[in-house]
Regucalcin (Anopheles gambiae), 345 residues
Amino acid sequence: MHSVPVGGSVDRSKRLKRHHSLQRAKPPPDKQKKKMASYKVEQLPSPLSVLGEGPHWDVERQSLYYNDIYGGSIHRYDYAENKTYNATIDGFPVISFIIPVKGNDRHFIIGTDRKVTLVDWDGRSEKATFVRTVGEVEPTMEDNRFNDAKVDSKGRFYGGTMRLEAKGDIFEMRLGTFYRYDAKQGKFVTLKEKIGVSNGLCWNEAGNLFYYIDSCDLDVKEYQVDANGDISGERVVIDFRVNGERPPFVPDGMTIDANGSLYVATFGGSTVYKVNSKTGKVELEIKLPCEQVTSAAFGGPNLDILYVTTAAKEFKSPQPAPAGALFAVTGLGVKGTPMYPVDLS
C-alpha cells in the first residue's frame, strides 16, 4: 500500500490497450457492459490526500482509518456520520500506516520512518499524541522507511520497508525488507529480503494463505502460512507485465473478499483489478476518476463497501482533483473479510 513514481509516459490509447489485454476470458460485450456497470463509485467527504494509504476498517467503531503518508496525517471516516476526522502528531511529518491496538480504543500504531510508534487518539481531535516506540528496524538505513503494514487474524503485525522515493527510481535498488513482529519477544522477524517496494498484503479468511505485493516485481504472490506466522511456498498469482514489458502502472495496495478474490490497486492505472486468486484471471476492472490509486479495504455494516484511497502527489504529471480523495465502491455483490487490531501483549 504505497504509491510510487511510474517510469516513462504512456499515452492513453496504449494504456487502454494494455489494460484490456490483462482482462482474460472476457464475457461477451453485452454481458461485460452489464457487469461493468453494476458497481457505483462515490467520492466521500474527506481531504484530498497527498498520498492517501493504509485503509483499515474497524468493525466495532464502524469507521475506516487511513493515513496520508506525506501529508503526515491520520484519518477516521465515520460511516454513520458520513464525515472524516483528521489529526496530526507533532514530530512525525511522514506516517506510513495506522492500525488500531487491541484492548485500548484510543491506541493506534503508526509507521514513522523505520519505527512502529504507539499513539493516543480519540478519533475526533485534530491532534494525536506520542505514547512510545514499539520497535525499530534498519536503524542505520536512513534512506529507507516503512511502507504498507497489516495485521493477521491472530493479531500479528506484518510490514515492510522501501527506499525513499526521493532517492531515485524505485526499480533501481532493492533495499527493503519484509517483517513480522513477535510481540512476546519484542523483536522483528525477517520474512523476505531484497524488496523494492513492500506493498499490498492480505490473508484468506482461513488465514493459511498470504498474498503479497512487491511493487517492483509487478505481480502478486501467494504464500502458505505456518503456525508461527512464517511464510513459504511462493506462487505467482498474476504477473501484470504485458508480453514481458512493464505496464503503465505498478500494483500497490490490496485486499481480499470472502470468496478469496483479490482487489489490487494500481498506482498510475486508475483501476482496482479484481483478480481470481486461484486462476490469476482478472474478473473485473473497477475504474476510479484519478490515476494514482493506492489501496483498498472492505468495510461498512455488511463489509460490502470497497473503500479506496488515492494520491494527489505529483510524481510524473499533475494530478487534478479528485486525486487524493477517499472513494466508496458499492454494488460489487461480495463481502470482504474482517480486519484485525494489533495485539501488542
Observations:
- The first strand starts at residue 40 and ends at 43.
- Helices lie at 12-22, 29-36.
- Residues 12-22 form the longest helix (11 residues).
